[in-house]
Design a protein that fits this description.
Layout: E1 9-20, E2 27-38, E3 42-46, H1 53-60, E4 68-73, E5 90-93, H2 105-115, H3 120-133, H4 148-160, E6 166-170, H5 178-195, E7 198-202, H6 206-211, E8 219-224, E9 238-242
Helix pairs in contact: 2-4
The protein binds adenosine-5'-diphosphate and magnesium ion.
GO molecular function: ATP binding; ATP hydrolysis activity
Domain ABC transporter: 11-245
Keywords: ATP-binding, Nucleotide-binding
Amino acid sequence: MTQDSDVVAAVRCINIKKHYGRGTSRLEVLQNLNMLVPRGTIYGLLGPSGCGKTTLLRCILGRLSMDQGTIWTLGKAPGTRGHGIPGSMVGYMPQETALYEDFTISETLNYFGTIHRMPKDVLKARKAFLISLLDLPSMKSMVGNLSGGQKRRVSFAAALVQSPPLLILDEPTVGVDPLLRMRIWEHLLEFVKDWNTTIILTTHYIEEARQANIKFISSLFYHVLPGRMGGLIISPTMLKINYRD
Ligand SMILES: Nc1ncnc2c1ncn2[C@@H]1O[C@H](COP(=O)(O)OP(=O)(O)O)[C@@H](O)[C@H]1O
Ligand SMILES: [Mg+2]
């Protein structure tokens, strides 16, 4: 079953509720969250640590069950048979890197490329592109010997390898130097422009989006999740930031 608005919406979240724990340790994390991510946009989730960004991403991926609500990803519920979410239709970069330490970078990308059934020549070209894009060391380097920042970039490459229509990136630019961060942003914008990719990411750095000098998409969207612990309480408002102004 699909809905008409899913022609333009890559992801729709309707009235999502999610809690953890029970009794006195019950924690309401997502409370009636509604969100619409248009296709071919970069959609940023902003909010203080612990406000539920990773939880929401895992619900969108179909990896975490919700208490209430409906999610549509590329027109179908995640986990629908034959849909590809979770699967090849989505590239996911988790907040904590989950890589095999005793694989080389090349073996890591081969592993993910093979899972996604990429033809060998396409995978080879994609690997070369990603190594250059993310300024990674030699393909023969062992993942276990890389720095934290380099491991995050390998994890990023693994999310991008099959050129998925939906990218879900949990804090992709943490541990990345400012110059590389700019380059990554430029490439994310190219994916949107050239392939109509939809990108949902979490970030602490609202400024990094501004620096990206966005010319070719009309807008970026930010969804600010409310903090629970006082201080920064922002209602879950969608701020539309138009970079053509
Ligand atoms: N599996 C879990 N069990 C219990 N509490 C959790 C679990 N995962 C996350 N939490 C709690 O839920 C809240 C939201 O977590 P998270 O979604 O990781 O936030 P964010 O990504 O915005 O930092 C935090 O208070 C976190 O401690
Ligand atoms: Mg998180």
